[in-house]
Design a protein that fits this description.
219 residues; mainly alpha; Helix Hairpins; extended
Length: 219
């Protein structure tokens, strides 16, 4: 992701090489254990792509990207059969939390469990934000209070991910870019303070914020 964000062909080439190394390495281990080899890995993904794209390789039809995805999921569900008992099955639990929420919501939406328009998720964000404030005002001094606060915060994050889906924004990418923007501005703040022969710790929050706002206009 970092290489793609940098728009650096050299860095992307390096990272793709690292990914390819893992594929070749594990295929070689499997070959030595007489389980499968790299050729079989390539044959399997090739067969899968052909099978799940009937609009390209067979007589199927698809008039939109959404239709292509829906067909892919239908064929995938048939292939998995009874091994998956839920429409939400197949979302890797090892994914980063934002991506896990995004994929879970998308799977629910594919079977019709979704808002008809953006007004729904917008209202849900406002509702969850209000509940978070309510939980905070109720106090979080004991374990139950902290648990409730965490729960409401999680609900707010989940609703924001859902809103991002309606806005066609990738939440993981959006958060990464906002973090990078903060990092650039903070480093510029450090540079400004250093040029003036000062330390950040010697400035008040108001003084730091004033410099921050100046740099915000420049970057």
């Amino acid at each position: 992701l970092e290489a793609i964000e940098e728009n650096s062909p050299a860095h992307l080439r390096e990272e793709l090489g690292d990914l390819l190394l893992q594929t070749v390495f594990h295929a070689q281990l499997a070959a030595e254990a007489e389980q499968f080899n790299l050729t079989e890995v390539l044959q399997e993904i090739n067969t899968k792509l052909i099978r799940r794209h009937p609009h390209v390789f067979a007589e199927g039809e698809a008039t939109s990207a959404e239709g292509v995805v829906a067909t892919w999921e239908q064929i995938k569900a048939k292939e998995k059969g009874s091994a998956r008992s839920s429409a939400l099955s197949g979302v890797p639990t090892t994914l980063p939390a934002l991506m896990h929420a995004e994929k879970t919501q998308a799977k629910a939406a594919r079977v019709g469990f979704d808002w008809p328009g953006i007004e729904g998720p917008l209202a849900k964000v406002q509702e969850e934000a209000a509940e978070l404030v309510e939980a905070w005002e109720a106090g979080a001094q004991d374990e139950e209070g902290r648990r409730k606060l965490e729960e409401e915060y999680g609900d707010l994050l989940f609703s924001l991910v859902n809103l991002a889906r309606f806005l066609k924004i990738r939440p993981e990418l959006a958060l990464r870019r906002s973090t990078e923007k903060f990092t650039r501005r903070f480093r510029r703040l450090e540079e400004r303070v250093a040029l003036e022969g000062q330390e950040l710790s010697s400035l008040t929050l108001e003084e730091m914020d004033a410099i921050w706002e100046e740099e915000k206009k420049r970057l």
